[in-house]
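User: Okay, second chain of the day. Same drill as before: sequence in, structure tokens out.
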Amino acid sequence: MLGSMAKDQEFHARGEAVGQTLGGAVRQWMRGMSTGEVKRLLTERHVQVNGNLCVDELRRLKEGDVVHVFEQPRAAVPTAKDVRVRYVDADLMVVEKPAGMTTLRHAEEKGWDDRRRQKQLTLEEVLQGMLPGVMKDNASRAAGHPLLRKKAAKSKDTKGQAMRGGGSPRVRAVHRLDRDTSGLMIFALSTRAEQALVAAFKGHAVQRAYLAVAHGRMKGARMIESWIVRDRGDGMRGSDPRGADAPEGQRAVTHLEVMEPLGDYTVVRCRLETGRTHQIRIHLAESGHMLCGERVYVRPAAGRPVVDDESEAPRHALHSAELEFVHPVSGARMKFSSSWPADLAKWLEGMRTRHL
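Assistant: Same drill. Structure tokens below.
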């Protein structure tokens, strides 16, 4: 099927492509391919949109979307077997999110039917489906959860609602990780835990640290403070030079600590004091140390040239490695750590061989 196409190709959604389905646009761009061949391109993982694998032919393209069509298939979409549950009780669960899976369904996807949802499940949906089994396997610690109550266990309707994500009990997201960021996350399993955890995140009471691999030779430790706005001047989220005087600017503070030099790259620990959207990625790019594998924040500032990335990172090299918080019900201090996942660990070994 792919023998007649040129190697990896890139297309931009402009003009009449905006608003089209992904399948329809690819069919126009890849002249000579049939509808069936385009469907196979998607289902066999040859297509990315804005750097993320997409297997949904009905996705509507937006102005500026970047579509890549690859000669070789990309990595498979993560499934429930790729999600690791680190802790669970009646009120919350701590899990390790795999890269390539979104945390929640985007607003424009809420109306999707089950067939489209099943192609690329969100972490929230995967955990909802896993919940009955997870509760059963951790019955002693999660004894107060509705799924383990005698009445709930006998109720097919309650179990069905849990599996579908409707009604109660349900998994409740209290924060997010980007699709390509892996690592530790907390989900609430009760209303009381949800309310307390949301307040804890808002009050910066949850301690989070990430491992990242950045461009350049960084030294020592530093703190980056800026005021992040939705549009820094080029349509990208970023820091406003007016600082605290920036209208609608949100204060963002990241603490950086060098963990390992790797030639022209550096492994760095990033501790969040605040938790703004894409905060670490923005701060690293704007400080001249763009994240390896970054596909969005590739300029240090509006109007500056794109930074070339020769790191060959399989995705953006960012992993949620540390999580510490006070349990919202028991008051116990909870602390978790997570090492590099397999894809980045393998890539890092290659980096060490080349640069040390």
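The longest strand covers residues 250-262.

User: Thanks, on to the next one.
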